[in-house]
Write a structure and sequence with these properties.
4-stranded antiparallel β-sheet, 14% strand, alpha/beta, 345 residues, Rossmann fold
Amino acid sequence: MKPKRDFDKSFQPIHDHTPQHQEEEVRAFSVEHYVRQLHETTDKLLADRPNRGDVKLLSVALRELRYCFKVFARLRDRRQVTVFGSARMQPADPSYQQAVEFSKRMASAGYMVITGGGEGIMEAGHVGAGKENSIGLNILLPFEQHPNAVIRNDPKLMHLRYFFTRKLLFVKECEAVALFPGGFGTLDEGFEVLTLVQTGKSHLFPIVMIDAPGSDYWHHFLRFTKDVLLARQLISESDLHLFKVTTSIDEAVAEIVNFYRVYHSMRYVKGDLLLRLQRVISDATLKTIRAEFTDIIREGTFELTNAQPEESEETELADLPRLKFRFDRHKLGRLRELIDVVNRD
């Protein structure tokens, strides 16, 4: 089962939940409520007297996102991995071949592969996954980027004008990210993914950085991260657990597949973080978590519980057990470590 992606439900701010507030919260979760808000917002644009360019940007972004959400809605029963990497990689390049093998293995594990739909690593991801398991998010550039032969003319190929809407979809719709060597665009995408996960503005998912055997592209990144960012206390040591650098396809695939071995998804409810689990964890694992992860809770302890009333609309997840606790949201790296312990149950 794949959860519906709704960042608002997964990452709510902490509020005082009076009965009146709870009623307002329920209303705010309805589709009709948000559609009315959209109408109100667009109506206010005329009163704001904006320039044509600003309104055009809003209009194009909204139309493209609505269409893309519609396409992805048909694929909600499948987990997806986003693959980033250079458009300049040729089929003979070892990284291209790694991307083909990785995507083939992920498709065999039941995943669909999202790429930018172009050439190079993007093409390799689709070659490995096959047409039926491929999704493309093509960017419209002044110099036209042609869709690769695998995804061309496929209804799962979407065209976007803006990078910010495209990057939103890359992260919002996936359950994992794999990065192969690339240029400015790949690094931009990689840093954005890390930032969103580190700050809790995205759901937590595995991030793997894959080098071909004998290559050191991502190892340079890892060395910089440790020798500069960590050494100067610009990140926390636990942030190193948010990603994995490897030259092994076996290791990369296992990092993603095992992440969902017991862990399923997460959601905040009334200030509590709920980790939805594929099955109940053992008493021994719960005891280990309570002993080793006291630093990531603000108060109370870790409890095994069932679905909360606020999750009632997610009927497909109703039977999954939950691990509930008051999470210190500064500790996303440590949360990833906790999920690793859960998955080793």
